[in-house]
Amino acid sequence: MDNTTGFAVTPVNHNHTNSSCSRDNVLKTVVFPVLYSLLFLLGLSLNGLAVWVFFSIPSRSHFIIYLKNIVVADVLMTLTFPFKVLSDSNMASVGLRVFVCRVSSVLFYLTMYISILFFGLISIDRCRKTLQPFKGTNAARLAHRKLLSGAIWGSLLALSLPNMVLTSRNPTSAYFKCSDLKTPAGLRWHEVVNHVCQFIFWGNLVTVIVCYALITKELYSSYTRTKAGTGQRQPRRRSVSSNVFLVLAVFFVCFVPFHFSRVPYTMSQTRGRLFDCNLKLFFFQLKESTLWLSSLNSLLDPLIYFFLCKSFRTTLFKMLRLPPGTCSWLTGMGVDPNTGSTPLGDSSACM
Ligand SMILES: Nc1ncnc2c1ncn2[C@@H]1O[C@H](COP(=O)(O)OP(=O)(O)O)[C@@H](O)[C@H]1O
């Protein structure tokens, strides 16, 4: 028996539910637990490495401050995966599944929106850096960015906390969904949070698109200017542009599908009577599949650090005792032999 709720532990028997609508099919109990286990192992290794590298780089640019926030969010997100694996594969006690609904899933979403917000800020910062390459920063601005980071964590925590507190009902059977544990106010808050988070996501997507369009325009005109001036081909600038698109590609692949599927799924949770059980199951599976893509972001972020942040690569190679030019064919961001600078002339050497 589970101490917290008094229900029998797994294997869960839910013969009382309509079996054709049961969530417990092979997708939820086998496929996703295997995929999340892989994400956990790879994500923990790569993000562990990223933490090790980042915390030996001083926070001397806005970009590095933002990346450090993302790496912390990714580590926390990765730590929630084992709970999801145990819960979805029905290997967890009822108490642990309640913990997943109340705490670890909420933490998962919190860290996801932290990453999304910091990606928006990174795009703005990169845009500013490209359009005004010689405008530096100072201690006061760096302190503001640290305050802003704290304010983002604080506000998202305040938004998410009621999702923990108002998931306070005890399950009435061993088979339950997170929405079954919510009080009426909890269900309303869950809906509100999802609206706010949709706004955060689409707002940041527009910001990222606008900023990267401006960056690409600037890179292209500086490329044509240089080409006209020297009469030479400058292949590196093209690879900078394609690296820049990595952020956009990651944003689209990881987050857009989830945010489309989240809308009908949240409606099926909060206005259940409008949906029959097959449709609810369909929206649940769609949400779970696209949520895995969002989780994949925690694994792809370290690749972004590697490709777009030269200080990250340099420090990584130093720590692994590899020569500085390692993988320059892959990153296309070596030092320009003519000018001695990085392709964007960015002294913080992160793009
Ligand atoms: N955007 C969000 N921010 C914070 N918490 C959230 C967010 N979306 C959902 N949650 C919370 O995470 C938990 C799991 O939600 P959800 O994934 O919708 O349920 P289920 O696992 O039953 O499909 C719930 O407590 C919910 O309120």
Describe the structure.
It contains 9 helices and no strands. With about 350 residues, it is mainly alpha-helical. The longest helix has about 45 residues, at about 185-230. The relative contact order is 0.13. Mean pLDDT is about 85; it is low at about 1-15, about 235-240 and about 335-350. The protein binds adenosine-5'-diphosphate. Adenosine-5'-diphosphate binds near residues 160, 167 and 190.
Strand-helix topology:
Layout: H1 26-54, H2 62-88, H3 94-131, H4 139-165, H5 184-230, H6 235-270, H7 277-308, H8 310-319, H9 328-331
Helix pairs in contact: 1-2, 1-7, 1-8, 2-3, 2-4, 2-7, 3-4, 3-5, 4-5, 5-6, 6-7
Bound molecules: adenosine-5'-diphosphate (ADP).
Briefly summarize what is shown.
Helices cover 71% and strands 0% of the residues. With 351 residues, it is mainly α. Keywords: Cell membrane, G-protein coupled receptor, Glycoprotein, Membrane, Receptor, Transducer, Transmembrane, Transmembrane helix.
Largest sheet: none
Residue ranges: pLDDT <50 for 5 or more in a row? 1-17, 235-240, 334-348
Mean pLDDT: 84
Approximate shape: elongated
Strand content: under 5%
Termini separation comes to: 54 Å
Question: Into which percent range does the helicity of residues fall?
Answer: over 70%
Q: Which small-molecule species are bound to the chains here?
A: adenosine-5'-diphosphate
Whole-angstrom Rg: 23 Å
Got a strand count? 0
Strand/helix succession: HHHHHHHHH
Task: Report the total helices.
Answer: 9
Structural class: mainly alpha
